[in-house]
Each structure stands twice: as C-alpha cells, then as structure tokens.
Design goal:
By secondary structure, the protein is α/β, with parallel strands linked by helices. The chain has 3 domains: about 5-340, TIM Barrel (Alpha-Beta Barrel); about 350-555, Glycoside hydrolase family 3 C-terminal domain (Rossmann fold); about 600-715, Immunoglobulin-like (Sandwich), CATH 2.60.40.10. Strand 23 (about 685) and strand 24 (about 690) form a beta hairpin. Helix 6 (about 105-125) runs antiparallel to helix 15 (about 350-365).
Length: about 725
C-alpha cells in the first residue's frame, strides 16, 4: 500500500476525521437518517462519518463486519476503520485482575493469558487493545490499582514485555495490536484521588514511572495513550516534554499517540487550555495523533490552519501514523482481519481458555495467614459456607468486554464441584456494600459455623468499588463484614477467610482474629473452582504480593523500596523520638511486597556471590540453595534485591533486581542463580541519565522483600 500516495489525495477534512475516535455505539448508518444524538452533539459532518479513523468498543464479530463493510463502501478513499477496545484482563474468559495476576510472578503465564485474550478479542472483531496498563502505583486508595501490576517498576517492566508479546506477537492470526497506557505518572495521583494531579521530580518520573512504557515499546507496542491528569502542572496529552521530547525524540517512537476518553477537551477544565481550539493547537505541538470520544480536532483545526497556528506538516505526520497503524495491522489487505461469528462461538469461553483462567487464579492467590488449618481435607463431612461473596458471581471483578455473568463460577459452585458428597450449609451473614452495618443475619452464620467441621468465610469489596473513579478514603471492610469475621472465627477456629478485592485492604484486626486468610483479589471467570482447589489442597498457594497491604490508611502511599532519611527509625516496634515515623503506627506495612505463604516451608541456605568486585563489562553470580522442608510439592518465587549504599542521588533501601519461580518436591533442593551486571546496578542520576556508578552494594535473596542483606560487593 502506497500510504504517501493515499495521503496526498486526501482532503484536509478527510485527514482530520482520521484523527478522531468515536464509540462504535454511535455508528448507526441509514442513508435516509440524518446525524442525530451523540453525533449531532459532537458536530460531526454526516458526509464524512465514514472517514473516522477509529472506533472504540466492539459489539461482536457480526456487527464489526457490518460496520467495516459500511466504511469500505462509503469511505471516499476506501480507508478501513480500526476497532480498539480495553481488553484489560481477558475478553470473554476473564483471568485475575492485573494486580492479582502480577502476584504469580510468572511471565510465561502472563504471556499466555494475554495471548488467550487476543484470540478471543480478534475473532470477535477487535484489532487493537488499549492495554497493557503500565502505571506503577503505591497508593491503595486509588481505585485503578486493580489494573496495575503493583508498586514495583522492575516487575512491571517484565510484565509489560510479556503482555505485549502475548497480545501482539508478530501480528499473525489471532493477535491484536497492543496500546500501552497511561503515560505517565497517572498511578501517582495526589491523595489517591483519580484524575488528580501528579507532581514529581524528573528523576522520579524517569526512574519509577517511565521504564515500563519503554519496555512495552521496545517489544513493539503500536500505540501509547496519554494520562488524563496533569503532570507537573501540564496535562499529559499536551505535555511537549513528555510526549515530544521524551517519547518521540528521545525514544524514537513513531507510532500512534491517543488521548484518553474526553482527555483533550478536559484540558479546558484543568485550566490549561483557554478553549477547545487552543487545546487542538497545543496537542499538535505535543505531537498527539488521535483524540478519543471528542471532536475538537475535526471542529477547530481548519481554522487553526488558516490562521497559521497549525501546519499541514503537523497534520500529515499525525495522519500518516494512523495510516501506518492500519497498514501494520493488515487492514488495507483484509479489513475484517480475524472477525468470524462462527469461530467466535467456538473460541469464546472454551474449555481450554477456562482451564488457563483457573490456573492463573490459583497461581495468583496469596496466602496471607495460616495457623495450620489449611489445607482442609477433602474428606471433611460438613462445610459452613458464609459471607456476602460466597454465592456471588461478582467476584469476577470489573473490566470486562464480552463477559457472560452466567459463566462465572461462584465459590459455592466451586466447593460443590469439588465436594459433591459433603454437607454444605450457606448463610450470607451480611450485605456486601462498603457501608453495610446491618448485623441481623450474623446469628444464622454463627449457628452453622458452630455445627460444621470447617467454615469458609468469603468477604471483601463489591467489584464496582474498585476501578476507575473508585478512590477510597478508608480501606477497611464494612462494619458488618468486620463483625461477621469476628463472630464466625470465634464460633469455629477452623475458619478460612477468603478475601476478594481490587486493592490492598487494611486487615490489622482480621490478621489477629482469623486462623487463615487467603487473598484472591478478583480472580475472574474460574474464581470459585480456584478457591475450592486452593482451600482443599488440590493446588498449593504460591502467589507473592506485588503491592503492600498497610496497617492503616494513614501509611499510604506505602511501598518497600522507599528511601532512608537522615533520622531513620531502625526499630519499628516502638515509638522513637526525633525519628521519621508515626507515633501511633509502624512504618512497615502489615504484609510487604513479595510476601506470601505456602502449605509447605522453604529453607534458604548457602547464600553467596562469586566475587566481591565487579568491573564494567563483567558480571558476578549471586546464588542460594532453596529446599522444600514441608510435605507438599510447591512453587516458590525466589527474589533478589540490591541496595546501592552511596550514590549521586539517594537510593532506596532495596530494589528488586531479579526473581525466579521454582517448583520443588518435598525434601528437594535447588540452587538458584542470578547474574549481576553493570546494568543491574544502573539508576537515574542527578543529571537524569541512567547509568551505574562505582561504589559498594548490598545484596539480598529470599522469599519476600523483608529480608536482611547477606553480602557486599563493589563496582570498580
């Protein structure tokens, strides 16, 4: 396809419509029907509606084919439309929310899940996903932490690479383009409120928040979405330093940059753009290509061109990015790609995909506490199934596309599937709402707990209480749920609390009273079967937290790789005068990054490094022996952390710089090795350049971030 020739024959208006993305819901074409409703409000010209560059949201293969057919028949230049969708954590078959899946520390699993999602989405008419979401976040008050991979940049980078590879690969059959979001710093909103400002140093931006996007683009991601917030006082979508200086010029990204929903128009609300017309002028300078859900570019650019404020060169560059995207997706050759209604019936929700979703849910679960009551025996005679989420399909979690509620397996269904002959009694106990205070149903729950061999207590958030615009000032369970946990655990000491949530919660009281706590986050379609397998020992928990659970909300943001201060509290168990600390709370979280228990136990020994010095261009090996000293075959994520003792800027107390997930039989032992190179030690210095500096380093290897250093070496 000669894209330059195509561009040259397009009129200015045709070009501008290529830079607009609309919701596919508004494309209802009838030649006898004038443009009305949403399109009329957007002031689009019905004669140019089929020059629109992109639609967001697919409503199935059949409708996608119909829409594309209309575009190919009515577009003056026969330019296909690209269909995008937020395929965040599965399409029809949902695997755990991103925050949950990241706890698997399994990059192969992350890639497989993305590949599964791509297959389902592609046959149902999606060309490109607005994912992965790569915002690093350290504040559980922010609702969108559920979409992130947690608080650590290194891990998020690894997941970015695996996910893009799974979605996109070489863009062959059953693959979709990947579009990473939301560049940049969106995961660090002030006070945890969604859409709120992000304000940070250039060092923090480059060290913590930008690297995952670079990794995604290095893997070939085709699109970047700008954040909705202001970054250091300038809306991301208009931020020339971020979008042009770094993304375009420094990184060399020559793909599509799209705004978030209504993002360009909202720069007026921020008080940055005087009006929508100026917003377009500034967006062109920042080299944004496409706006989502608004029509500012279509309505104001012609005037800006005539006034000399926007050039044809700027417009042509943006349009060429859109045309090149469509060409890379193969839409000029085959506008329908993999859309196939009959194949969709076979693929969406198939057994193979459900099996993978169940495995992902099991691998992502984190055992937070266990006083020896888990796993329960499959020979148990009676089970009390209690809680507002015990028989609830909404444990699947938010962010879905073609999700079918009826396909979600509840915990009640999962337990019955596994234990068909056990006596199972159910009591709701209380309502799930976050402000629920009615405790009138608790007595029934206590009664059946007393009369049963074991109790399973399913509590947590409603799935719509986390996600976009779902920020929270309090992170505790509802008063009714807290009372339910207290009463039921008193009635039966063999009570396992199963937690469903989109974010870390404050579980300080529950940690004291419950004998066992299994955190599932929101586990997806096969959540109920996964819970049953985990509780009854068919699967052994192996997940490790990727976001710290605070003792209380006042600690937020709380994260493991913090800096020391000049008055650093060394004893976190008692109040110390003139130290950087709280007088009424520990500094450390309740459950730290990297933490997660198992039904077995692991012994770490013989930690060592191959040399005490390392030169530029060379490497050393850090190793440890890990032995399964328990009774169950199980997996363990071995984590390596490094601390730079002195630098041109202050460095964190430790940083994750390697991890390996291994599986061991009882009494089996393996040696795990990590290579340390100069790049392992690099960081963004005072000059904002990433490099390693000569000096001393400490190394830590263990099963969580709460471990002590065992060796010291020097880069010379």
């Amino acid at each position: 396809m000669d894209l330059k020739k195509l561009l040259d024959k397009m009129s200015l208006k045709e070009k501008l419509y290529q830079l607009m993305q609309l919701d596919s819901n508004v494309i209802i074409y009838d030649e006898n029907m004038p443009v009305t409703g949403p399109l009329q409000k957007l002031k689009v010209d019905e004669d140019y509606i089929f020059e629109t560059g992109s639609l967001v949201n697919s409503f199935g293969a059949k409708r996608t084919i119909e829409i594309q057919k209309n575009f190919m028949e009515n577009s003056k230049n026969r330019i296909p439309v690209v269909i995008m969708q937020d395929v965040i954590r599965g399409y029809r078959t949902l695997y755990p929310i991103n925050l949950g899946l990241s706890c698997s520390f399994d990059m192969e699993l992350c890639e497989k899940c993305a590949s599964m999602a791509a297959k389902e989405a592609s046959v149902d008419g999606v060309h490109l996903t607005l994912a992965p979401m790569l915002d690093v976040s350290r504040d559980a008050r922010w609702g969108r932490v559920m979409e992130t991979s947690g608080e650590d940049t290194y891990l998020t980078c690894k997941i970015a690479t695996a996910t893009v590879r799974g979605f996109q690969g070489d863009l062959g059959k059953y693959k979709i383009g990947a579009g990473c979001k939301h560049i940049a710093g969106y995961g660090a909103p002030e006070s945890g409120k969604d859409y709120n400002l992000s304000d940070m140093s250039e060092i923090t931006l480059r060290e913590t928040y930008l690297p995952p996007y670079k990794c995604a683009l290095d893997e070939g991601a085709m699109l970047v979405m700008a954040g909705q917030q202001t970054l250091n006082g300038i809306p991301c979508v208009l931020n020339t330093h971020l979008m042009k200086d770094i993304l375009r010029d420094e990184w060399g990204f020559d793909g599509v940059v799209i705004s978030d929903y209504n993002c360009l128009a909202s720069t007026v609300d921020h008080g940055y753009s005087e009006d929508h017309k100026q917003a377009v002028e500034l967006a062109m300078k920042a080299e944004m290509d496409m706006e989502m859900a608004t029509s500012c570019i279509v309505n104001y650019t012609e005037a800006l061109v005539s006034e000399g404020k926007v050039t044809m060169e700027q417009i042509d560059r943006a349009v060429m990015h859109i045309l090149e995207l469509k060409d890379k997706l193969g839409l000029f050759e085959n506008p329908y790609r993999d859309a196939d209604p009959e194949e969709a019936k076979r693929v969406l929700g198939c057994k193979e995909h459900r099996d993978l979703a169940r495995i992902a849910s099991e691998e992502s679960a984190v055992l937070l506490k266990n006083n020896g009551i888990l796993p329960f025996s499959e020979d148990v005679g009676s089970v009390a199934l209690i809680g507002p989420l015990a028989s609830e399909k909404r444990i699947v979690g938010s962010w879905w596309c073609a999700y079918d509620k009826d396909e979600t397996v509840t915990v009640a269904e999962g337990i019955k599937n596994l234990l068909p002959y056990a006596k199972i009694r159910y009591a709701k106990g209380c309502e799930p709402e976050l402000d629920a205070m009615d405790t009138s149903q608790i007595e029934e729950a206590v009664s059946i707990a007393k009369e049963s061999d074991v109790a399973i207590l399913c509590v947590g958030e409603d799935m719509l209480d986390s996600g976009e615009s779902k920020s929270k000032a309090f992170l505790t369970l509802s008063p009714a749920q807290k009372e339910l946990i207290k009463r039921v655990t008193e009635a039966n000491e063999k009570t396992a609390v199963v937690l469903f949530t989109g974010r870390p919660l404050v579980l300080t009281e529950e940690n004291k009273t419950a004998s066992a706590i299994l955190n599932m986050f929101f586990p997806g379609t096969e959540g109920g079967n996964a819970v049953a397998n985990l509780l009854f020992g068919k699967s052994v928990p192996c997940g490790k937290l990727t976001m710290s659970f605070p003792h209380n909300v006042g600690q937020c943001p709380v994260y493991y790789n913090h800096f020391k201060t000049g008055n650093y509290r060394t004893d976190d168990t008692k109040r110390q005068v003139f130290k950087s600390s709280y007088i009424d709370s520990p500094n450390k979280p309740l459950y730290p990054f990297g933490y997660g228990l198992s039904y077995t136990s692991f012994e770490y020994s013989d930690r060592k490094i191959s040399a005490n010095t390392i030169k530029s261009g060379e490497s050393i090996i850090a190793s440890v022996k890990v032995k399964n000293t328990g009774k169950y075959k199980a997996k363990e994520t071995v984590q390596m952390y490094v601390q730079d003792l002195f630098g041109s800027v202050v460095r964190p107390v430790k940083e994750l710089r390697g991890f390996k997930k291994i599986e061991l039989l009882p009494n089996e032992e393996k040696t795990v090795e990590f290579e340390i190179t100069e790049s392992t030690l690099a960081f963004v210095g005072a000059d904002c350049i990433r490099k390693a500096e000569k000096g001393k380093f400490r190394i830590f290897i263990g099963g969580s971030s709460e471990i002590e250093p065992f060796a010291e070496f020097e880069l010379i």
